[in-house]
């Protein structure tokens, strides 16, 4: 009561050392003292002896609590059940008391501690529900039931319990925990907008918590709000200048800026993380990809190699080095590295990357097998469909190619290459209206792509709509002026339109450009 906890602790230890003589008149006190001194077995033995002569609910509950401290949760559950039996025998119906509610709550905690089986969470939920039936405003029961629902992936019920907790007059600590847990649940559902709102609310309650700002930054990154992500990671680093993950995450957000300045800032962050911890594999891998973006393939290869030396089981490092080897033209080394990665783990991304390497090696059948296996593992991996479609296109299996491009676009509607390729495929399948629609979509997605205008010009030429074809090919040449093939196409079109002089000038320009290329 005087808050002199050190003195209180000293006195309790002194009493424990005095032995059993001091406790003959109070075995409950003896058990409490032994438990405080971490002598749980002695405390349990004392209470079991007492229960043999005096089996009351309160003693069973105390025994269960001490067994929980001793990590003997199964024994604790049995003790709590015995307490409920005695309470139940005192009336025809289980009494609606706080005592019964507490027992169910303690049993639920025991089940939650036994995380090895799904059934334990369900048992915990049952007991916590009984607790709530007996005490409608038991905050800890709602909180722990929400966690159990979360663990068994019953997200709807977990969200409901978290919502109730925020409506109840919960403590500041509980509200903060609820906001963070609910945000993590939203992240698991890939609902980053709602997760972001909860993390922001949590940051108001705990503005000195760098981990919360890290979580906010990750959500912003997922929502492609890269500047906001950088600001949040920076705030976290102000609170904790040695936060390695924040440097790496901020570097990745800088990389998404899509310009050299962003890449340079990213490199500084990755180097800072490595300065703080030279064995930080994550930072080395990100630096490897950063150097790759700058076209410094050998330096990138060095970083991936060091990462592998630090952690020989890091499949991401093998994957990164495989891609760099491919870019340097060493397909065999790339194939070896991607296989090393696949020995460590199997994923749609790794299989798709191996498929690409097989394509470069000319093994198209092996590539298709990799893409199909990637799709079977993860039917939502758009790149596998896109690459498989390209192989179908190569083999002139245009119907299959169109189908796979469509699947890729269902998963990734902003893939302009898939839209353009489907437009070309539909042109070859004589699906003219579908092709026109795809060309329009491709132009909306990538208005400065010469390839889109060039291929639509080809479509208009086959339809003998020469004016439209001439307009598109001229637009393509304004974007990409030194292309011999485009000049030849425009010459063909202008010839059909009767513009002989303009056509001859284009043919001459095409020949001139081609001669320059051949002379290089």
UniProtKB/TrEMBL annotation:
Repeat region (TPR), residues: 57-90, 176-209, 210-243, 281-314, 382-415, 450-483
UniProt-listed InterPro entries: TPR-like_helical_dom_sf, TPR_2, TPR_rpt, Ycf3
Cross-referenced Gene3D superfamilies: Tetratricopeptide repeat domain
Annotated PROSITE patterns: TPR (PS50005), TPR_REGION (PS50293)
Keywords linked to the UniProt accession: Repeat, TPR repeat
Alphabetized SMART domains for the sequence: TPR
UniProt-listed SUPFAM superfamilies: TPR-like (SSF48452)
Protein name: Tetratricopeptide repeat domain 6
Species whose genome carries this gene: Pelodiscus sinensis
Species lineage: Eukaryota, Metazoa, Chordata, Craniata, Vertebrata
